[in-house]
């Protein structure tokens, strides 16, 4: 086949004309071509024959050649060729001048021609030498039109041959500058750059804006004075750079003189200004073309001017001239609503002014609105599909404005379409987002990828370019070049640079990411659930909704917890909207908040509409439907309705804001009334561990005292009757004396002195007695000890009386006591008055010395009493105690004692301390003092014990100082010793007797109690 | 994945517990506080034994004693890519909430095979492929953990059943 093709050219009509060009071909070429031709001829005899026939057929014009052929038929080929060359050369030269085109063709076809010749020769030679062959051929071969048919077929094939292929072939054969063409494929571009050998370029000045005209003039001049004319123009080329280099044009020429000569008298050229030679290096820059933004249908652009300035538009169509673009816009129309009554649109200019002042919002075209006022400007046009309207000379299709605009009025750079803008365009479709052409959007966004969207540490992937497929982490960014450290593959560990546009961020499913880009999901946090090329679907932590977003707008997030914050408002915050309305924030947008108010209605508000943020109160308590206490963080469930459940976020009046993670809407927040919920689980103590107050009985007992007396104290600790010496008033054992060994509410087990045998006696038949003096003790329900407690301080019998009154039933009968307990000193004063007179001397005598031991002793005892308070409470005194606590009690109790003492003594170091107590009853002082003394509980028994011995004292007091001293001192230590902890404290007082006995040694006393 | 991990814990003890049963109390306290705890990284499943209960040290000022206890515990740390069995706690149009032991795993709709569709009209609502696969509250699922998000005292995870051998059991 290829042979045929070759021959085809050979057999062209112009065969003859080609021949002369033979000269171009070297001998070597011919040698090369020979074997091939031989093969060809050997292959097929018919071919050979055909070749000859064709030759004969067509060789009509040039007789000379025919003759040559005839003559040299039998010569060696080379001879033939040589001859040909010789003969043809002159002809060829002639022809070249006349028609250079054919010359070149001949150059190509010459070989073929030769080939033909050869074939002819061979064929004829073969025919001549082997006539037998002819015989071997079928009959009538000569007359056969097979060759004609072959020719026809050949032509058919040519005709059917792919036009492109044909063109290529023709170009190969006839291409004017074959060498250059083939070179350009091989030679790298940089080698084509101009060098010093090449013509220089001069820059000249002209009138700004007239550069083109200058160039046209030069071009014209070149045409008028071609190179071969008498006065050829030596400027090779001229060009200008348009707006970039205003007032400049450039000429290419060998010499400056050529330029000057060529530019002579060209309009707008300023010959006065020097020509500037452009350095060779800068030449390529002159011709570098700023690639204009490619506008493709479906792409996004922004309008530069006019009513729609800054608006996003989608390219519908780009005219082939590249200057006009049809765009789709969301119209801004006011439908004449803002026109004056006169009908402003009549004046286009004024209208434009109006439009610029008030810019209608972007809304899809609505024919109903247009009809209201502007029906006359509205006409329906039958669109291809969808409705189409013509309104005020603009076309509206499917609500969008379709407008032809010039490229200059559009900007394709930094379009950065925001999703909400884009969704406006998608709204026309029945299915919003699905209609979005994400691919084109992505393409637009790609161009505007801000380099700051890549931050060090971002995982990235090179997805196009030479390094496609590389995966790494960004190390740094400079401009739009990102350095990344490869983390996977062969290059792992290396740092390479890549342009931003070839990168995309890489996320894995399950990554926790944050939206950083300028979409409306900004700052949303979520987990990636799907990654598809450039788009990432993530599940928002907050709303549990799936968001699809470009990976460039994401970055890995280390943040935990809830996202979204607008100023001080955070999701799930409780805010006050007005006096009657509170609401819980369920979504934070960039500028607005979405809240659910107490009535469950949801609205969008601006931060400015919020009166204030309600700081959650930790102790807010409500009761559920069953009356159980509910607090924040409890889990509750709705009883009626939707049976929603959730954790209480906020309690506001009777409304609960519940949070349920499994609920997607409203960020999991719902509002219920407290009366409509039951507690599922309270926050409880599981997190805080065991409740010490419950586990430790000692603490359990104490709690009520401090806790506001919510619970009545336990009935008693140790029954005070136990251990007391009692006489039995009635019954079989009447008059006998014994010691109470055990006691309960109703009866006591008494060990009689006489029989050493425990007997059970009803309590009411017992009368406690002082074991020494055998004086009856007053004791409420066997609490004589209370009175006793006083006695020691009392250090004075008299106070004891008043005390006992307060504390015991007996005392109850005593009118004076009640006021005394009232707490006022005055009320007590009379009691003291009675006692003080008698006692004073005693105290006086004792002087300062006594005070110290008392201080200690009494204090300890008070402490004990304080702790005891519950015990006291059970008695008649309860109200008193509960009211003011043991402090009051203590103060009361002590006051008299010391009150009496203070005025009397007025002395010594004790005075200040006790003075404070006696006068103001400073509870704090008091509290402080006993506290270090040791456990409150411990001393108590001691305190109780103490009085018992003291009981007789009152009687003694009035009489003389020593008596009490003796009475007092002796039992006290004993009692204390019998009991416990307080003992050491009382030890101070135990020493007292000694002190008393010694009558002085004040200093010693001071020392001994102090520790 | 489960691990046997040795950890230490400091327990402060109120003086009222000082006494013969202190050790029992400490153990009880440790079990109570540790078992079932979520650190944000892992769950403590079970306290195995105590390696060492140090000597208590009375803290000045408050009288409580501090014990540093070293103990071994079985912990569970969920990993990305781990396959677990879980029980569906609720189904929503957005996906399925499940509980794999103490870990709540959410399966987003994107991670549910496309043939298993949301069917809101049944009672209770379910995801189903209208054949043998029905996912409703209480269904046992085998799922693969896609991602784990540690929180202060909780772990949230998302999972997928969009792979072979995953889905209702």
Automatic annotation (TrEMBL), chain A:
<comment type="similarity">
    <text>Belongs to the SPT5 family.</text>
</comment>
<feature type="compositionally biased region" description="Basic and acidic residues">
    <location>
        <begin position="31"/>
        <end position="41"/>
    </location>
</feature>
<feature type="domain" description="KOW">
    <location>
        <begin position="506"/>
        <end position="534"/>
    </location>
</feature>
<dbReference type="GO" id="GO:0032784">
    <property type="term" value="P:regulation of DNA-templated transcription elongation"/>
</dbReference>
<dbReference type="InterPro" id="IPR041973">
    <property type="entry name" value="KOW_Spt5_1"/>
</dbReference>
<dbReference type="GO" id="GO:0006357">
    <property type="term" value="P:regulation of transcription by RNA polymerase II"/>
</dbReference>
<protein>
    <recommendedName>
        <fullName>Transcription elongation factor SPT5</fullName>
    </recommendedName>
</protein>
<dbReference type="Pfam" id="PF12815">
    <property type="entry name" value="CTD"/>
</dbReference>
<dbReference type="Pfam" id="PF23290">
    <property type="entry name" value="KOW5_SPT5"/>
</dbReference>
<dbReference type="GO" id="GO:0032044">
    <property type="term" value="C:DSIF complex"/>
</dbReference>
<dbReference type="Pfam" id="PF11942">
    <property type="entry name" value="Spt5_N"/>
</dbReference>
<dbReference type="InterPro" id="IPR057936">
    <property type="entry name" value="KOWx_Spt5"/>
</dbReference>
<dbReference type="InterPro" id="IPR014722">
    <property type="entry name" value="Rib_uL2_dom2"/>
</dbReference>
<feature type="region of interest" description="Disordered">
    <location>
        <begin position="766"/>
        <end position="878"/>
    </location>
</feature>
<feature type="domain" description="KOW">
    <location>
        <begin position="294"/>
        <end position="321"/>
    </location>
</feature>
<dbReference type="Pfam" id="PF23037">
    <property type="entry name" value="KOWx_SPT5"/>
</dbReference>
<dbReference type="InterPro" id="IPR005100">
    <property type="entry name" value="NGN-domain"/>
</dbReference>
<feature type="compositionally biased region" description="Acidic residues">
    <location>
        <begin position="56"/>
        <end position="86"/>
    </location>
</feature>
<feature type="region of interest" description="Disordered">
    <location>
        <begin position="895"/>
        <end position="1011"/>
    </location>
</feature>
<feature type="region of interest" description="Disordered">
    <location>
        <begin position="344"/>
        <end position="371"/>
    </location>
</feature>
<dbReference type="GO" id="GO:0006368">
    <property type="term" value="P:transcription elongation by RNA polymerase II"/>
</dbReference>
<keyword id="KW-0539">Nucleus</keyword>
From TrEMBL, chain B:
<dbReference type="GO" id="GO:0045948">
    <property type="term" value="P:positive regulation of translational initiation"/>
</dbReference>
<comment type="function">
    <text>DNA-dependent RNA polymerase which catalyzes the transcription of DNA into RNA using the four ribonucleoside triphosphates as substrates.</text>
</comment>
<dbReference type="Pfam" id="PF00575">
    <property type="entry name" value="S1"/>
</dbReference>
<keyword id="KW-0539">Nucleus</keyword>
<keyword id="KW-0804">Transcription</keyword>
<dbReference type="GO" id="GO:0060213">
    <property type="term" value="P:positive regulation of nuclear-transcribed mRNA poly(A) tail shortening"/>
</dbReference>
<dbReference type="GO" id="GO:0006367">
    <property type="term" value="P:transcription initiation at RNA polymerase II promoter"/>
</dbReference>
<comment type="similarity">
    <text>Belongs to the eukaryotic RPB7/RPC8 RNA polymerase subunit family.</text>
</comment>
<dbReference type="InterPro" id="IPR003029">
    <property type="entry name" value="S1_domain"/>
</dbReference>
<dbReference type="GO" id="GO:0005665">
    <property type="term" value="C:RNA polymerase II, core complex"/>
</dbReference>
<dbReference type="GO" id="GO:0003727">
    <property type="term" value="F:single-stranded RNA binding"/>
</dbReference>
<dbReference type="InterPro" id="IPR005576">
    <property type="entry name" value="Rpb7-like_N"/>
</dbReference>
<feature type="domain" description="S1 motif">
    <location>
        <begin position="77"/>
        <end position="155"/>
    </location>
</feature>
<dbReference type="InterPro" id="IPR036898">
    <property type="entry name" value="RNA_pol_Rpb7-like_N_sf"/>
</dbReference>
<protein>
    <recommendedName>
        <fullName>DNA-directed RNA polymerase subunit</fullName>
    </recommendedName>
</protein>
<dbReference type="GO" id="GO:0003697">
    <property type="term" value="F:single-stranded DNA binding"/>
</dbReference>
<dbReference type="InterPro" id="IPR045113">
    <property type="entry name" value="Rpb7-like"/>
</dbReference>
<dbReference type="InterPro" id="IPR012340">
    <property type="entry name" value="NA-bd_OB-fold"/>
</dbReference>
<keyword id="KW-0240">DNA-directed RNA polymerase</keyword>
<feature type="domain" description="RNA polymerase Rpb7-like N-terminal">
    <location>
        <begin position="9"/>
        <end position="63"/>
    </location>
</feature>
<dbReference type="GO" id="GO:0000932">
    <property type="term" value="C:P-body"/>
</dbReference>
<dbReference type="GO" id="GO:0031369">
    <property type="term" value="F:translation initiation factor binding"/>
</dbReference>
């Amino acid at each position: 086949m290829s042979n045929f093709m070759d021959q085809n050219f050979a057999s062209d009509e112009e065969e003859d004309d080609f021949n002369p060009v033979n000269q171009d071909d070297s001998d070597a070429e011919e040698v090369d071509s020979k074997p091939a031709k031989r093969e060809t001829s050997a292959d097929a005899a018919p071919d050979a024959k055909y070749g000859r026939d064709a030759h004969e057929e067509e060789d009509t014009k040039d007789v000379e050649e025919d003759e040559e052929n005839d003559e040299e038929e039998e010569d060696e080929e080379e001879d033939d060729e040589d001859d040909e060359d010789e003969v043809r050369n002159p002809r060829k030269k002639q022809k070249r001048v006349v028609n250079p085109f054919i010359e070149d063709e001949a150059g190509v076809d010459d070989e073929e021609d030769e080939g033909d010749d050869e074939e002819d020769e061979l064929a004829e030679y073969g025919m001549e030498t082997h006539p037998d062959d002819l015989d071997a051929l079928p009959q009538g071969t000569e007359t056969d039109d097979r060759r004609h048919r072959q020719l026809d077929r050949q032509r058919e094939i040519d005709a059917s041959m792919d036009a492109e292929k044909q063109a290529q072939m023709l170009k190969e054969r006839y291409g004017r500058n074959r060498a250059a063409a083939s070179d350009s494929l091989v030679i790298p571009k940089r080698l084509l750059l101009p060098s010093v050998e090449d013509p220089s370029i001069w820059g000249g000045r002209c009138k700004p804006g007239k550069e083109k005209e200058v160039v046209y003039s030069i071009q014209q001049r070149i045409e008028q004075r071609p190179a071969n004319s008498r006065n050829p123009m030596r400027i090779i080329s001229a060009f200008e750079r348009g707006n970039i280099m205003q007032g400049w044009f450039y000429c290419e020429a060998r010499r400056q003189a050529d330029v000057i000569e060529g530019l002579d008298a060209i309009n707008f050229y300023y010959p006065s200004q020097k020509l500037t030679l452009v350095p060779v290096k800068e030449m390529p820059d002159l011709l570098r073309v700023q690639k204009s933004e490619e506008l493709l249908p479906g792409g996004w652009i922004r309008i530069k001017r006019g009513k729609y300035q800054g608006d996003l538009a989608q390219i519908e169509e780009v005219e082939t001239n590249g200057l006009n673009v049809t765009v789709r816009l969301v119209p801004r129309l006011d439908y004449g609503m803002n026109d004056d009554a006169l009908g402003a649109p009549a004046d286009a200019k004024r209208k434009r002014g109006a439009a610029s002042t008030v810019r209608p919002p972007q809304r899809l075209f609505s024919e109903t609105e247009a009809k209201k006022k502007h029906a006359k400007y509205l006409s329906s046009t039958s669109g291809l599909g969808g409705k189409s309207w013509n309104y005020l000379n603009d076309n509206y299709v499917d609500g969008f404005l379709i407008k032809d605009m010039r490229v200059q009025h559009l900007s394709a750079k930094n379009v950065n379409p925001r999703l909400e803008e884009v969704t406006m365009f998608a709204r026309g479709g029945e299915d919003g987002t699905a209609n979005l052409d994400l691919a084109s959007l992505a393409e637009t966004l790609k161009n505007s990828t801000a380099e700051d969207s890549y931050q060090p540490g971002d995982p990235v992937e090179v997805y196009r370019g030479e390094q496609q497929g590389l995966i790494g982490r960004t190390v740094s960014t400079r401009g739009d070049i990102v350095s990344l450290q490869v983390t996977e593959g062969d290059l792992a560990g290396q740092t390479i640079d890549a342009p931003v546009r070839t990168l995309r961020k890489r996320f894995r499913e399950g990554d926790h990411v944050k939206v950083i880009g300028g979409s409306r999901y900004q700052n949303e946090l979520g987990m990636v659930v799907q990654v598809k090329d450039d788009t990432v679907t993530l599940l928002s932590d907050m709303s549990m909704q799936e968001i699809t977003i470009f990976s460039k707008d994401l970055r890995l997030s280390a943040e935990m917890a809830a996202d979204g914050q607008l100023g001080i408002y955070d999701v799930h915050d409780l805010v006050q909207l007005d006096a009657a309305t509170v609401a819980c924030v369920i979504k934070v947008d960039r500028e607005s908040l979405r809240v659910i108010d107490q009535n469950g209605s949801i609205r969008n508000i601006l931060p400015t509409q919020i009166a204030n943020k309600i700081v959650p109160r930790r102790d807010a308590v409500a009761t559920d439907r069953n009356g159980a206490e509910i607090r924040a963080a409890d889990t509750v469930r709705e009883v009626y309705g939707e049976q929603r459940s959730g954790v209480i976020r906020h309690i506001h009046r009777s409304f609960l804001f519940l949070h349920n993670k499994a609920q997607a809407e409203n960020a999991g927040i719902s509002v219920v009334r407290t009366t409509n919920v039951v507690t599922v689980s309270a926050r409880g103590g599981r997190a805080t561990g065991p409740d010490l107050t419950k586990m430790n009985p000692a603490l359990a007992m104490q709690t009520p005292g401090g806790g506001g007396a919510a619970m009545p104290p336990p009935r008693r600790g140790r029954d005070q009757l136990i251990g007391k010496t009692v006489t039995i008033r009635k019954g079989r054992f009447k008059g006998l004396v014994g010691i109470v060994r055990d006691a309960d509410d109703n009866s006591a087990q008494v060990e009689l002195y006489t029989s050493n045998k425990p007997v059970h006696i009803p309590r009411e038949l017992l009368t406690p007695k002082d074991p020494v003096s055998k004086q009856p003790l007053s004791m409420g329900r066997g609490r004589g000890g209370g009175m006793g407690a006083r006695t020691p301080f009392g250090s004075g019998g008299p106070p004891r009386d008043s005390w006992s009154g307060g504390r015991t039933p007996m005392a109850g009968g005593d009118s004076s006591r009640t006021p005394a307990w009232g707490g006022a000193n005055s009320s007590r004063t009379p009691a003291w008055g009675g006692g003080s007179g008698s006692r004073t001397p005693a105290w006086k005598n004792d002087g300062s010395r006594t005070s110290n031991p008392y201080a200690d002793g009494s204090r300890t005892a008070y402490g004990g009493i304080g702790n005891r308070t519950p015990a006291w409470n059970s008695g008649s005194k309860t109200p008193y105690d509960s009211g003011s606590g043991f402090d009051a009690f203590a103060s009361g109790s002590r006051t008299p004692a010391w009150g009496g003492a203070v005025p009397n003594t007025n002395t010594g170091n004790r005075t200040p301390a006790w003075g404070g107590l006696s006068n103001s009853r400073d509870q704090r002082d008091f509290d402080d003092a006993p506290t270090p003394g040791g456990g409150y509980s411990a001393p108590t028994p001691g305190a109780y014990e103490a009085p018992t011995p003291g009981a007789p004292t009152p009687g003694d007091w009035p009489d003389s100082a020593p008596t009490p001293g003796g009475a007092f001192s002796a039992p006290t230590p004993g009692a204390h010793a019998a009991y416990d902890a307080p003992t050491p404290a009382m030890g101070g007082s135990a020493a007292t007797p000694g002190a008393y006995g010694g009558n002085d040694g004040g200093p010693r006393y001071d020392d001994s109690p102090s520790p | 994945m489960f691990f046997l991990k040795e950890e230490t814990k400091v327990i402060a003890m109120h003086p009222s517990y000082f006494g013969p049963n202190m050790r029992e109390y400490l153990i009880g306290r440790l079990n109570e506080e540790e078992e079932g705890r979520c650190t944000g990284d892992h769950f403590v499943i079970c306290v195995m034994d105590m390696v060492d209960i140090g000597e208590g040290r009375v803290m000045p000022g408050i009288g409580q004693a501090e014990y540093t206890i070293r103990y071994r515990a079985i912990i569970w740390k969920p990993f990305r890519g781990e396959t677990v069995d879980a029980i569906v706690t609720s189904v929503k149009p957005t996906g399925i909430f499940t509980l794999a032991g103490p870990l709540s795993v959410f399966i987003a709709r994107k991670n549910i095979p496309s043939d298993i569709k949301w069917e809101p009209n049944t009672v209770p609502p379910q995801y189903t492929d209208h054949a043998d696969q029905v996912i409703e509250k209480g269904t046992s699922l085998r799922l693969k953990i896609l991602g784990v998000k540690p929180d202060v005292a909780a772990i949230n995870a998302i999972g997928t059943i969009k792979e072979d051998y995953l889905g209702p059991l």
